[in-house]
Amino acid sequence: MTELLTLLDLDDLGADRFRGYSPASAGSHLYGGQVVAQALVAATRTVPADRPAHSLHAYFVLAGDPRIPIDFAVERVRDGRSFTTRRCEATQRGRVIFSLEASFQLREPGLTHAADMPPATAPEDLPTIDALIERFQAFLPAPAEPWQKRASSLDMRVVAPETLLSPTRAGQLIWFRVQEPLPDDEATHAALLAYLSDMTLLNTALMVHGRNIFDPRIQVASLDHALWIHARPSVDDWLLYVQESPAASHARGLTFGRIYSRDGRLLASSAQEGLIRLRTNL
Fold this sequence. Notes:
Elements: H1 2-7, E1 11-14, E2 17-20, H2 32-44, E3 53-60, E4 70-79, E5 83-92, E6 95-105, H3 129-135, H4 145-151, E7 154-159, E8 172-178, H5 186-197, H6 203-207, E9 218-229, E10 239-249, E11 252-261, E12 266-278
Antiparallel strand pairs: 1-2, 2-4, 3-6, 3-9, 4-5, 5-6, 7-8, 8-10, 9-12, 10-11, 11-12
């Protein structure tokens, strides 16, 4: 928990510039959700507190290096009466590795509807992530270790875990929550929601083919990511992540996600396209 909150505590360099760092457990690859969350934090710091983020759209330009700091530069695109728009670029060694555009809104009443949450086994009745890792250890090679360390700060429960290694077009359902209580700060919950929204999404495009992100025969990388926040999330309470992959082609897979509160409210929607390239040299 401390490590997650430290990720969001960016250094303020002045002139809408910020600096972030990766955790010691990051391994050799920079986790995409980390950069999304840190960029959102940087953008949020330039916006009035009464305008929470409602959407973000991001592109992963280059692979980042977790061993060196990440610099974030925020551009104040627009400050309107209801909406505020910010653009943020993340750089390392003087090169852009990531770009994000986010929109913030002064809350107002309006028409409301949402897709219903699908039926799902209660999280307390499902095995813990540690039990799943032990169960599927033979299918989790060394590259899975950084993912396991990230997951250790969470409580994650996979609905119908037997489908993880079997071809399915039904997608996957995952309960998750941060294991310890968080500060009652909407911006913190939104940033952590952005962090977590990237964690298992792309794997859905591989499950259709009976593969997973740890398969050494596949090169996997996030290409872009979008998140829409419909209502204030509480990331330290159980959330159900409903994921599906409608299409894959030309070494790219498209995935969609819906995030529900335990009582069935749709809190956020996500979309991501990722590289799922078959390695020909293996």
